[in-house]
Design goal:
binds magnesium ion; alpha/beta; binds guanosine-5'-triphosphate; elongated; 2 domains; Rossmann fold; 8 strands; 40% helix; 275 residues; six-stranded mixed beta sheet
Length: 275
């Protein structure tokens, strides 16, 4: 439509100018010009479209859906395992967050190590806990850096080898604690040694007063151009009550859908971090 209108417009303009040579599209010098304009118009449309963030039905905020100079990912374009050569199937994932944010509980749930995700007597992670699993055809090594202040400062040491950072936030915590989480988060995302994507888990959605994904997005001062994905999370055992709370907090969904999304999105990002 756009191209047809442009051709008609230019033809009548050329007709008005009595330039018969311009009317013959096979030899007209206007043809390359026309092609270039159409290319720029269509390209610009898709570029703008790709920049938009996408909000999924469970409230997750994805994107921006474009590749930029610093970042290496491009989400939602399916990549299959076959496209990754066998010697490139290793990934390192660094899991960060304040003390008590829920990193250990989240990993237990994600990696199915425990049927009771919330330990009866949870212990803070001292130092860095490393866990290696074969999942989705990749050897994935997770490094959970304990959230205590004296351990947290070592987080930067792990970033240079990370393919993905998972940042866990206690969405039900106080405003002061969220401000502290924001400072830590900003420190990580501004780190020059790391240019990959960051997945933020807005955790403890089952607790009263838990902030929504949108509120966590704002509380952490995430920029629209950051390669950051904010997902709702809950490591509490699945129950009817939890499902109801999650449905209310993040839109029409269930904890099952949220878990599937975590796996799908993390796998998707890990598949493409080799690009
Ligand atoms: N209700 C609820 N409690 C949670 C959830 N996730 C974690 N918790 C609880 O929060 C507390 C801290 O959880 P951890 O997973 O140990 O926190 P962490 O981030 O690993 O903490 P550090 O290892 O000290 O850095 C524990 O009492 C967990 O049972 C959740 O989704 N819902
Ligand atoms: Mg821990």
């Amino acid at each position: 439509m756009f191209v047809t209108l442009s051709v008609l417009g230019l033809r009548s303009l050329a007709g008005l100018l009595y330039r018969e040579d311009l009317l013959d599209l096979s030899t007209s010098p206007l043809l390359p010009l026309l092609g270039t304009s159409a290319f720029i118009a269509v390209g610009g449309y898709y570029w703008r479209k790709q920049q938009r963030r996408v909000v999924l039905s469970d409230g997750s905020i994805m994107g921006p859906l474009r590749r930029n100079k610093r970042r290496k990912t491009l989400l939602l374009t399916p990549i299959t395992l076959a496209e990754i050569s066998p010697n490139e199937r290793k990934r390192s994932i660094v899991v960060l967050g304040l003390a008590g944010a829920g990193k250990t509980a989240f990993l237990n749930k994600l990696l199915h190590f425990s049927t009771s995700y919330l330990a009866k007597d949870p212990q803070p992670t001292l130092g860095v806990k490393m866990t290696s699993v074969d999942l989705h055809g990749l050897t994935q090594t997770y490094y959970e850096v304990g959230g205590a202040e004296n351990t947290r400062m070592f987080a930067k040491e792990f970033l240079h080898m990370a393919n993905l950072v998972i940042f866990v936030v206690d969405a039900s915590s106080s405003a002061e604690s969220l401000a502290e989480a924001r400072d830590f988060f900003q420190l990580i995302t501004k780190e020059k040694d790391y240019a990959g994507p960051v997945v933020v888990m807005a955790g403890k959605q089952d607790l009263p007063g838990a902030r929504s994904v949108r509120e966590i997005y704002e509380a952490l001062a995430i920029c629209d151009t950051d390669d950051v994905y904010v997902l709702p999370a809950c490591s509490a055992p699945k129950s009817r009550d939890t499902d109801d709370v999650l449905d209310g907090a993040v839109g029409a969904t269930t904890t099952d859908l949220t878990d599937r999304n975590h796996h799908g999105i993390i796998q998707n990002l890990l598949y493409r971090t080799f690009i």
